[in-house]
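As the next step, I selected for study one protein, both as residues and as discrete backbone shape codes, as given directly below:
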Amino acid sequence: MQDWTNCTAMVVEDSAVQRDHMAGLLRQAGFGQVLVACDGIDALRKLDARGLPVELVLTDLDMPGMDGLELIRHLKELELACSLVVASAREGRLGEAAASMADGATRMQMLGTALKPLHFDVLQSLLAHADAQALSAGAMTAVPGSEEIEAALAQQQFLPYFEPRIEVAGGLLRGVDVHASWLHPERGLIRASRFLPTLQGSASIAPLAMSIAQQALAQLKAWHDIGLVTLTMSIRLPAELLADRRMIDRLCAIVHEHGVAHRSITWECPEAVLTSAAPLSIANLAHLSLRGFGIGVAGYRAGQTSQQQLARCPLTELRIDHVIVNEASQQPARAALLQQSIEAAHQMRIAVVAEGVEHGSDLALLRSYGCELAQGPLVAAPMPAQALVGWIKGNRRRLKELVAVEGGD
């Protein structure tokens, strides 16, 4: 009998009753940890934040927001799960799921499909097709090691992806948020959340950030040259780079070399830089501010950083974490935190960016609170540079209509 004690599974199911039932079956099978998600978007958000693939995902297919087939596609592309079991009340849909797994190479193993309601003996039969120890080892090896990352950096496999930010009031594109991405020659595109945790505290984190910044600044200059002159860019700087004045001076030199206006660029620091009151980093941020750059804080969560700590740094922009933003229109406690964060920023004359916006009702709430900018799945996913111009042309009308809707999705 398989030993799943050291393995983690996730149930993705929009019905609370079915979700609890399936989670109970997995615990009965011996899984050491069982995570739950109410739909595909919730699952991806939790798996992405975890930073480590789970050994098994047990998912329904018919779910609002993102159905199971779309979730399977993302799980394959992002390597967020080692194996998969699909359950549905409709036999035809199970065939679609099996076909989706057969379409294209994937490291994720399909253990099988089952009609709902799922029974324990059926689940056991499906799990018998897997090797728990091999899946556990696969989950660990799916996370790149530091040596592999350092080699990829030397081979220039890292590149910036750009996530559009729109004006909440009018739907106009105002800027892009830069994401570090790894274009792996065999595994395809790997998101930053999969490899950055491995680099924390290493000697490679600053060179990687510098490489991404240099590529992004060159692209911003190219966009300005073709007429997108009002486009701004936010670039995240790790604490290791912010603490090194030589790196800061090099960044300024790169901006000068590309001829990009300082006001078009916002350098973002991790929230931890403010909470730890790191004197060198804050002094270097002040230096950048004096040179005319925007200064932002990334992933802000109310309660972790006080207004006094925010005031220590010459901030022009506060990016509120998706944990607060998502479904705030449906969660009164979350809405209160969101409103509190926006009001605190505005009292200090700091503009607010809401990240991770997924629902039209949340966008309407942000507008009512006076939030300036928004980004997230509702707007667009991060994209390569060559896709942005086409995206702008194809989405102008949609974005204007989106911000004009009061509270809908």
About this structure: Residues 205-225 form the longest helix (21 residues).
